[in-house]
Amino acid sequence: MGKKKVITKEGEIKEGATQAPVEVSKKGSKKQVINGVAHIVVSYNNTMISIADTKGEVLAWSSSGALGFKGSKKSTPYAANLVAKNVVEKAKKYNLLNLKILVRGIGPGRESAIRGLAASGLNITALMDKTPIAHNGVKSPKPRRI
Q1: How far apart are CA 92 and CA 30, in angstroms?
Q2: Handedness of CA 113, 118, 124, 127 (dihedral sign)
Q3: What's the pTM?
Q4: Residue 21 DSSP label
Q5: CB contact set of 54 (below 8 Å; sequence gap of 6+)
Q6: Can you tell me whether residue 20 is helix, strand or coil?
């Protein structure tokens, strides 16, 4: 085998050293994201929004249940609007400018969540509907034999 290379805290590389490597942390660096993708999942019971970068790494997320709404209040348009405002507020830390919106599902908070993201001041580059649509459904049962 070859010699061990150890990186010290100062950044020097020592060959043949027997010390354990020291991890250098990136404590002060924040990720800067200009383009993001907002995934809105709307159901009859809840509204969930997550904002990710273009690679798919989630920057911020929120749901109406996480904001404290319970029961049937989670599915209201008012709760969806507050979820959108909350998740944009969390994502502002990353200097987000442009947003692509992907909506999945049907429910009462669908339009309100989109309007909440649009009113946040971000540039909306695209709005896509990714609701899954069944084409043929399940196979029908065989006829009864008596």
Answers
A1: 12
A2: positive
A3: 0.72
A4: P
A5: 35, 36, 37
A6: coil
Q: Which amino acid is at 87?
A: V
User: What is the β-pairing status of strands 98-104 and 123-129?
Assistant: parallel
Tens of pLDDT, residues 104-120: 999 899 999 999 999 99
Domains and CATH numbers, the chain: 35-129 (3.30.420.80)
Q: Which residue has the tokens 């354990």?
A: 20
Give dist(CA 67, CA 77) in Å, integer.
14
Token pair belonging to 107: 């429910």
- Report the candidate in 146, 143, 92, 145 with the shortest Cα–Cα distance to residue 122: 92
Contact status, residue 116 vs residue 141, Cβ threshold 8 Å: no
